[in-house]
Amino acid sequence: MATEIYPSSFRCDCGEDLGFSESTIREMKKMSKNKQVRLGEGKHTILFYKGTAKEIICPKLKKCAITDWE
After folding, report:
1. Phi and psi dihedrals of 64, rounded to 5?
2. Residues 2/29/40/22 CA torsion (nearest 10 deg)
3. Which residues, at least 6 apart from 23, have a Cβ–Cβ distance to it below 8 Å?
4. Using the 8-state DSSP alphabet, how is residue 15 labeled?
5. Phi and psi for 58 in degrees, rounded to 5?
6. 3-60 pLDDT, tens per residue?
7. What is the CA radius of gyration of the chain?
8. Nearest CA-CA partner of 28 in 7, 6, 12, 47
9. pTM of the prediction?
10. How many angstroms separate the CA atoms of 70 and 68, rounded?
11. Phi/psi at 29 (nearest 5 deg)?
């Protein structure tokens, strides 16, 4: 399972670490309250929905669900 590393980083199952600013993640979570939003870094994309990060779309492994914070 992919992992959200508080406050603003994520680790994909393939081992790739994705880092963003805290304000970017806070804004994405806020925007995703009513609709799905995506945030990409390189070839990885994080899907946010209902105020939380739900999954990472990985070029190698396709979809990786995100577990609780580390």
Report:
1. -125, 115
2. -90
3. none
4. S
5. -110, 140
6. 999 899 999 999 999 999 999 999 999 999 999 999 999 999 999 999 999 999 999 9
7. 11
8. 47
9. 0.90
10. 7
11. -65, -40
Alpha carbon distance 37, 16 (integer Å): 21
Contact 7, 25 (CB under 8 A): yes
With contact defined as beta carbons under 8 Å apart, do 9 and 37 qualify?
Answer: no
Phi, psi of 59 (to 5 degrees): -65, -25
Instruction: Locate 69 and state its tokens.
Output: 């914070």
How is the chain split into domains, by residue range? 2-69
Residue 46 near residue 39, CB atoms below 8 Å:
yes
Reduced 3-state DSSP string for 16-67: CEEECCHHHHHHHHHHCCCCCEEEEECCEEEEEECCEEEEEEECCCEEEEEE
